[in-house]
Amino acid sequence: MKNCHVCGYECENDAEVCLLCGAELKTFETYEQELKEAEKKAQEEAMIIKKPVLAASVDNVVAAEIYKDVLRDNGIIFTCDESEDAMQIVFGGGFTAQEIYVNECDLEIAQQLYENVVNAEVEFGDDLFEEFEEFEEE
Fold first, then answer.
1. CA atoms within 13 A on the CB side of 91
2. Minimal CA–CA distance to 106: which of 37, 35, 55?
3. Which sequence spans correspond to the domains of the chain?
């Protein structure tokens, strides 16, 4: 005998439909697998950017990676104009800007987060390295 996963009624082992409620009889493992698949599909659909808008065009590779980490930490889904592993170097040794897109509904917070990243950037001037040069001379 197997129990219906909907109403709990005891059905014959070879029954495919519950006689009491009419639910399709499934094993617990099958039912659990279907739930996992439905959850996975819902998560994948949530990851789709339905109305992409440009949040920032970042020309500093390090700042772009920091910004993407900040977006991830804040649960904002984004996409870039290039693959995650790509680093494009242009003539003269510079880097190309990385354009980062978010959902239209997340644009305002994404731009505020970008401002926070830009304002938190540390500038490395020559005076910073003078301390190290003095240390090396001693």
1. 0
2. 55
3. 2-46, 52-121
Please say if the pLDDT value at position 29 is more than 60: yes
Q: Name every residue whose Cβ is closer than 8 Å to that of residue 9 and which is 6 or more positions away in sequence.
A: 3, 18, 19, 20, 21
Question: Which stretch of 2-11, 27-36, 62-71, 118-127 has the lowest confidence by average pLDDT?
Answer: 118-127
Angle between helices 61-73 and 107-120 (to 10 degrees): 130
Q: Is the dihedral of CA 99, 101, 107, 111 positive or negative?
A: negative
- Helix or strand or coil: residue 95? strand
State percent of the chain over pLDDT 90.
16
Domain 52-121 belongs to what architecture? Answer: 2-Layer Sandwich (3.30)
- What does the alpha-carbon distance between residue 52 and residue 76 come to, in Å, rounded to a whole number? 12
The whole-angstrom separation of Cα 44 and Cα 47 is 5
